[in-house]
Design goal:
Structural class: alpha/beta
Number of helices: 13
Strand content: 5-15%
Strand order of the largest sheet: 2-1-3-4-11-10-9
Radius of gyration: 30 Å
Largest sheet: 7 strands, mixed
């Protein structure tokens, strides 16, 4: 019985430690990426060395297989989406060298040098397996930006020190040549093929006509129209630098073919899942209804997409979603997708006609994560118990080899 309990503990403990070791990265961003468990998987090095010594190499591989199963089952149950093949391949590419390193370090002589090299290989797999930064595209199209939000200046600064890009603008510059403009009247003479309207100030009738004409000629626009802006600013009420508290383009939106609804009373921060699995974090968002023949309402009412002549405008009933506090864990790293806490960058760029890597998996909810960890731990316990029974049978001594030779040759009383 003691053999079974010790074997069960040795087989189950590595997987449990690796599983728990990857949770801090998951909780930091909400991304469910198997590559987040690659660094904790280095715990399999000492685990494999000890298992080889006490239970054999087969036990080390059994524990490693159970660790992979626990991690992947947790990733699936937390997001309710099958993990992508590339992250899974990187996870396996990090775990296999870790187990081999432990088996080699458990030996003597030159095998220990091989084990050290395999540890370095596992570390290299972790380093190169991380999602690459968003790189700059050459010859990128021009994007005009009209916004009342502090996207190109820092609050509380004066002069040149106030000129700084918000994280979302830093990312947009990797795919577009970003040009802040004051009025749609400049679009006719410019070369912009895309337009971002993010809670703009009030536009005159001439500006509205120019905007509609530019779209009709084939422009692509993204309008962030917030009926209840919650963007945190310390500027006093009445300051001309403050963005409008409510969108001033409701009438134009209705002309294009949809009606913007008033905000929901008491609405706050919400993780909004789109039909294709992407997730946006919105704050006091509203929705659309009454779509005309040229419009479609998407994302459970949050997004509307309308055809305006030869052009297309995508309208989102929230402008707070581009606030970096709602989509970025580290404000200094907007170009690192593993620091994103929502699919906002990919959604914004795609709506403007560009492309960014997609396919991230997100924790559905706190309850989903708790259940995922619970079932992954239970699966690991069952796997370890099955292995304990299996390796007990393999290690059970045979009768002819366990009995002392003197007992087998002991003469009888009559001899």
């Amino acid at each position: 019985m003691k053999f079974l309990i010790r074997t069960w503990a040795m087989l189950g403990l590595p997987g449990l430690l690796v599983l728990l070791g990857g949770l801090p990265a998951l909780l930091r961003t909400g991304q469910v990426d198997p590559r987040g468990w690659m660094l904790p998987a280095l715990l399999l090095v000492p685990a494999a060395a000890l298992l080889k010594r006490w239970r054999g190499e087969g036990a080390a591989w059994w524990a490693g297989l159970g660790t992979v199963g626990a991690v992947l089952s947790c990733a699936f149950l937390a997001s309710w989406r099958v993990p992508d093949g590339v992250p899974v391949a990187w996870l396996l590419g990090g775990m296999v060298p870790a187990i081999l390193a432990g088996l080699a370090l458990g030996g003597k002589g030159a095998r220990q040098f091989v084990g050290a090299g395999l540890v370095l290989l596992a570390l290299a797999m972790w380093w190169f397996g991380r999602e690459p930064r968003v790189e700059l595209f050459k010859n990128s199209p021009e994007l005009a930006v009209i916004s009342g939000l502090p996207l190109f200046w820092r609050e509380g600064e004066k002069g040149l020190a106030a000129r700084v890009d918000a994280p979302i603008v830093t990312l947009l510059r990797q795919r577009f040549t970003v040009m802040p403009v004051d009025s749609p009247l400049t679009l006719e003479k410019g070369r912009a093929t895309a337009l971002l309207l993010a809670q703009p100030r009030a536009l005159s009738m001439d500006e509205l006509v120019a905007l509609d004409a530019w779209l009709s000629r084939g422009g692509t626009a993204l309008l962030l129209a917030d009926p209840q802006l919650r963007w945190p600013l310390d500027l006093p009420l009445g300051d001309r630098r403050r963005p409008p508290a409510v969108t001033l383009l409701s009438a134009m939106i209705q002309v294009w073919g949809v009606k913007l609804m008033p905000p929901v009373v008491g609405a706050g921060e919400e993780r909004h899942f789109l039909g294709d699995g992407r997730m946006l974090t919105v704050y006091a968002a509203s929705g659309f209804e009454g779509a005309g023949p040229d419009c479609r309402i998407l994302a459970r009412g949050l997004v509307a997409r309308c055809a305006v002549g030869k052009g297309v405008v995508t309208i989102v009933a929230d402008a707070d979603l581009i606030d970096d506090r709602l989509w970025l864990a580290d404000p200094a790293a907007p170009l690192s997708p593993d620091e994103w806490t929502a699919d906002t960058p990919q959604f914004i760029v795609q709506a403007l006609g560009g492309e960014l890597p997609s396919g991230r998996r997100w924790v559905r909810s706190g309850d989903a994560l708790v259940n995922a960890v619970r079932w992954a731990v239970l699966a690991g316990i069952f796997w370890a118990a099955l292995g304990a029974v299996l390796f007990r049978r393999r290690n059970r001594p045979r009768l002819g080899r366990s009995m002392p030779r003197s007992a087998l040759l002991k003469p009888g009383n009559g001899d």
